Amino acid sequence: MGHSKLDLLQGTLDLMVLQTLAFMGSLHGYGIARRIEQASGDEVLLNQGTIYASLVRLQQRGWISAEWGTSDNNRKAKFYSITKRGRKQLTEDAAYWQRLSGVMNRVLAVPGEEA
Amino acid sequence: MMEGLRQSLQRFLSLFRGARLDQEHDAEVAAHLDLAIDENRKHGMSAEEARRQALMQLGGVAQTKENYRDHRGIAWLETLFRDLRFTLRMLRKSPGFCAVAILALALGIGFSSIVFSIFYNGILNPFPYRDANRLMSISVMDDRDGTRQFRPVFHLDEIVAFRKQNHTFEDIVGVSSWDVLYARNGVTQLVHGCVMTPNGAEFYGVPPMLGRGLMERDAQPGADPVVLLGYEYWKKEFQQDKTVVGKTMMIDNQSRTVIGVMPPRFYLFGADFYALIPWNRPEPSSWADAMANNVPYFFFPNGILKRGISRDTANADLLAIAQRLVPLHKDDYPEKFHISTRGFSDAIVGDFKQTVFLLIGAVALLLLISSSNVASLLLTHHSARAKEIALRSALGASRSRLIRQLLLESFVLGAAGCLAGSFLAYGGLKAAKTLDAALQIPGESDISLNWQVLLFAVAVSLLTALLFGLSPAFFAVKKDLRENLQSSGVNANSSRRGGKIRAGLVVGQVALSMLLLVFAGLVIRSFIAVTNFDPGISTKNMFLAEIHFPGHQYDSAESKRAYFEQALARISAIPGVVNAATALSWPIEGSPGSEDVTIPGKPHDKHWTTSFDGCSEGYFQTLGLRLLRGRLISSSDVASGRRIAVVNHTLSERYFPNQDPIGQQIKFNVLDQIPGAPHDAYFEIVGIVSDFRNVGLQESVRPEAFVPYTFSGFGERTLFVRTAANPNLFVNTFRQVLADVDPNPVLSHPDTLEGLLHTHEYVKPKFRLISFGTCAGIGLGLALIGLFGVMSYSVALQTQELGVRMALGAQCSDILTLVLRKGIFLVGGGLLLGLLVALLSVRILQSQLWGVSAFDPGAFVLAPLALLAAGLFACYLPARRATRVNPIVALRYE
What's the pLDDT at B852? Predict the structure, then answer.
């Protein structure tokens, strides 16, 4: 088997979207999807379509806002940007993920019994 | 938390702007693809390849949109809306099925809502008064021979004592009716008033509709005399004129200012007006004294029980007080007694409750019939859709999804039935309003379609929708679905099991409607028995009225005689009048109380009592009583006030068995207490007349004695006139003739004997007749529809088989027999089952019947015959259609 892509863990996509928007400012759906793919070094398996489920979720919670605008190459597209509450949420969630990945690293570093 | 709430709200809101959001998202996805294609083209792909890659990266347009929608709104609610739209479309396709199902449900739901409203608003919650559930009436109970009510009324000083000394009531009020004369625009009329002790102003807690209410200070000495009007009287007498407040009324020779009008539901004593009476009003020395001065003598006490106090505790508390009162009112307490408090509604509603409870049972049966009717309709409807259901299942619809959709259909039908039923109930309750008063439903009650009744209707429709929808839905989906896909058209084999269920449902419906028919039959027979019952007085063209004399006029026997001699002579002279008479009381209803008698030479331990009336010489002829022995009262007896008595047959049988009562003496002890009446007087019995029912139609005849009305000048009198035509046409003539004699006495409560019997005797049987009859009629109609439906369906299934039979030479009559045999089996099965249940349960109806046995053969024979005939007719129509099957067409079917 070759190198297979990673399935996204539940809830991680929302965090990635928030982080992307916090870093990049205003961005449309395609741009966010591409950015995540690039940032992950094409490691994650992302149906770009799922980004829209995440976007509507975040929008309904009031963490991002949306506005129609024009892209660099003159296409009309919906642009998303992170809100103040979204930034707060991002800080909390990022801290949580860092703690979790730290714990995961430590746990996996302990040599287990090999069967 | 906040975010969660916000998200839910957003999701919910998005349900209502789905179309716009969808459009926006479409544009967004299109933009996404365009951006992706642009980028791919930049990397040198061909236009086609760029688009293919973009779509792959996106993961499909449809999936993206579906995924987006799932996250945007509330998935199940959207599905529900979609299903609802689909269901409505499906139902629109079969309007006949819908119409019958909704009609069946509307009848069941509508009728049960009407009965629920009568129960809830008329029995459970009739009173608008404060703390109505703790509102009690109080009576002295006689414990001498068993327990019976001695008196529900008290002297004012007794009520004061109860009020001051009790520990169990928040407050006790005394209320009495007070009928007085009131002159307006030159016409004097008798008005029905209600006086209350001063605390009555606050006690009932109902604010006036207009003006101000009574206040405690209105009863203080020196306060301006005031009066508060009842709604009905205000409507009738003043045509709802709002300016009446502030005007004065001459009531009982006293000018009183009208201070306000009470709302319609304040119906205490059904009074025309309300006034206060001071606690310390001078106590009349006797009942006769009170009568002579026209002031209230006895008061009905109403108390509000303290929270958490039981009625037994209150009874004991009041008994202790009452025992201290015995020396003050020796004659008003039996030797052995106790005090009993009863809930206000118990005291008023009486035996009507029983009728309503039985009616609740009847409508429950009706609901069962209508839901099983709809269930069998649904079974047929679903089997016609068997192929569609199978196809949908094959295309991936889960079982639960299919059942949910079929159930939704039931709920939609239920909702439509609920709506139609509520309209039905609204109309029915309007019609029922006219029945209220005589039915012992308190006048305060508002039997209408209020929110509680609507809630009931909704709950019942939900329940029935589950009841009739669940099993057909499971049944439709449970079957081996492949079979339905393979078969062409309606398949007899796969429907056989459904057919059995349908047959069972129809048998059940027939049985239930049989039960209702037997009940209705009994109630009808009872109604006929009551209305045809001969009370002993000829009821045809009998006019009755009360003559009310102003205070201190016509007090003496001589003045009464002078008045009536003239009045009766003039009335008798009116063309069309057969004869006229006067007495003390009304016949049949409202006879005078039964009082102790003494008969010399006849010692007895038990109380010997008799009713007692004072009559003019024409009384017996006017009423149509037959002389059995001796002689009647003569005009010379009346003129001289001779102490003679004519007794009824029952009195002579009871107190003079095997003995001739003529020439014997009898003393009416009650006269000793009436001032102006002969005290210690013995009357010689001179004649015996035939009995008439003197305590209502349903109780056995009491002993009664008639003496010349001139024995005393005391009290109001009754006028009887036998006319040759409808007595109602004579009322004004009578009034005029009486006014010619003297304009002061007032003719009040004019009625006919038939009218009187209608109010007191026929109304309840009539209510039962209408209610149970309607129930049974609807039940029968529904069962016949069910029967017809099942038979038609089974004929449709058998078309091919019948065609083969006819091709092989079967005659029309053979086919008819074949089909009818099944029908007879269904009708007969249901009929026998219903009869059996009826025989076992009919005893509960006993209390509602009079003059007919619960096992009345008429009802038990006629009802099944009617059902059989109607049932066979319902089967005959489909059977006849079966004989018209064209064998060629039938065989071509497959």
Answer: 86
Measure in Å the smallest separation between the Cα of B2 and chain A Cα atoms.
Answer: 9
Is 0.95 surpassed by the pTM of this model?
no
CB B577 within 8 A of CB B724: yes
Q: Which residues of chain B neighbour A33 with C-beta distances below 8 Å? A: 32, 57
Nearest by Cα to B623 from B716, B719, B546? B719
Are residue B664 and residue B731 in the same domain, yes or no? yes
Chain A residue with CA closest to B71: the answer is A53
Domain count, chain B: 5
SS3 of B370-432: the string is: HHHHHHHHHHHHHHHCHHHHHHHHHCCCCHHHHHHHHHHHHHHHHHHHHHHHHHHHHHHHHHH
Per-residue pLDDT tens over the stretch B696-723: 888 889 999 999 999 988 888 999 999 9
Q: How many residues does chain A have?
A: 115
Note whether A77 contacts B32, CB cutoff 8 Å.
yes
Of B197, B189, B263, nearest to B228 (Cα)?
Answer: B263
For residue B492, being part of any structural domain is answered with no
- Dihedral sign, Cα of residue B627, residue B628, residue B630, residue B633: negative
Please provide the average confidence, as pLDDT, over all residues in chain B: 87
Which residues have C-beta within 8 Å of that of residue A102, sequence separation ≥ 6? none
| Beta strands B577-583 and B226-229, pairing class | unpaired
Same domain for B591 and B700, yes or no, is yes
B119 phi, psi to nearest 5 deg: -70, -50
Chain A residues with beta carbon closer than 8 angstroms to that of B57: 33, 47-48
For residue B74, list chain A residues with Cβ-Cβ distance below 8 A: none
Kindly list the domain boundaries of chain A, sorted by start residue.
12-109
- Answer yes or no: is pLDDT of B487 > 60: no
CA distance B580 to B135: 46
| CATH class of the domain whose range is A12-109 | mainly alpha
Q: Which of B110-114, B846-850, B867-871 has the lowest mean pLDDT?
A: B846-850
The residue range of the domain holding B469 is 74-132+351-486
